[in-house]
Design goal:
Blueprint (H helix, E strand, L loop, with lengths): L1 E2 L2 H7 L3 H8 L3 H10 L8 H14 L9 E2 L18 H12 L10 H7 L19 H16 L2 E5 L6 H14 L4 E4 L18 H12 L9 H17 L3 E6 L7 H11 L2 E2 L2 E2 L2 E6 L1 H6 L8 H4 L3 E4 L7 H11 L10 H11 L11 H18 L6 H5 L2
Parallel strand pairs: 3-8, 3-9, 4-5, 5-8
Antiparallel strand pairs: 1-2, 6-7
Amino acid sequence: MTLQLKAVLAAARIPQGRLAAAVGISRPALNGLINHGHLPTGCDHAAVRSAITQYLVQHGAPAADWHLQEKGPTCANTPAPVSPSQDPDTATEINDEEESMLLRYQALTPQARKQFGLSCNPFADPASAEDVFLSPDIRYVRESMHQVARHGGFAAVIGESGAGKSTLREEMLDRIQREEQAVIVIQPYVLASEGSDSVGKTLRSHHIAEAIMTAVAPLAKVKSSPEARFHQLHGALRDSARAGHSHVLVIEEAHSLPLPTLKHLKRFRELKDGLRPLLSVILIGQPELALKLSEHNPEVREVVQRIEIITLQPLDNELEGYLQHRFKRAQVPLERVMDRGAIDALRAKLVPARGAGSLLYPLAVQNAVTAAINRAAALGAPIVTADVIRGV
């Protein structure tokens, strides 16, 4: 499929990042739609297109100017499509967005480790709770997740790829174990989960029921009929709760959940012992999940009215604190590696101008800084400067 959208955005002077944020999808997902006509399988494609259309109309770009067409075979004598002319400023803006979208994974070179005295990788996965950086925003998300796990609730934690969602999930599990809290965490495996059965396996309510029974009553023989199985599930949760346990269902990659499964989660939440809810739910996913849980999506209105949306924000003003924390864990002061100009240049690199969404998330930061450290070492520069940052 081909999408005639880039020229419309250029003509209307709408940055791609702004459109992505407005319709609730990630910038890479929108970029894939614009350049290749594809959306991630976890997206509700019809809802995305409807949201884009509404946004374009509201901002003076007639919806008729862009459309989806089936891509037919290309004839040898068919001329290549001519790109519409663009305003130079707008063209530069769109190109800058695409260039600054992502940096590949970077590993520190031996030369860089030696030059900057880094005996370990400052951006290695946290090995303890002390390694997890907690800004006020991240701390709020962390405590919200913990409260749902301990005391009940229904929440969706949403953030871009690399925002730190999985780290907070792992820290929550570590905290529950470390503090010996009476919380049973149920985590259905989503290794092969996809948003559509046409490209993989979807996570269904009976899979969730199996995961709950495995965690709560591992020795029980699960009933074969759906009615008996869910009655057995209710009883197992009730018995476990009366023994003093809380239960939290945690689903990673929740943006890939099909809408029927999202609707069924409300029914799991309705399992009670008298007035006491027996199961809390935490969904963890990318911005596509927010689109599925939009108040404009009538298919999941019963869930939307009951779920708390918690968003992991970019580091932004906490960038320097994050870098100081990471290098302190590696026992090297930040000022020995980067000067202040480099930090400002990094912020400018990952926060495109003109309203585009910030990319100042931990994974993007660590890839950019690692690339800059490697480049400084290759150039023989004693410290990472603004010029080095701009060159990666």
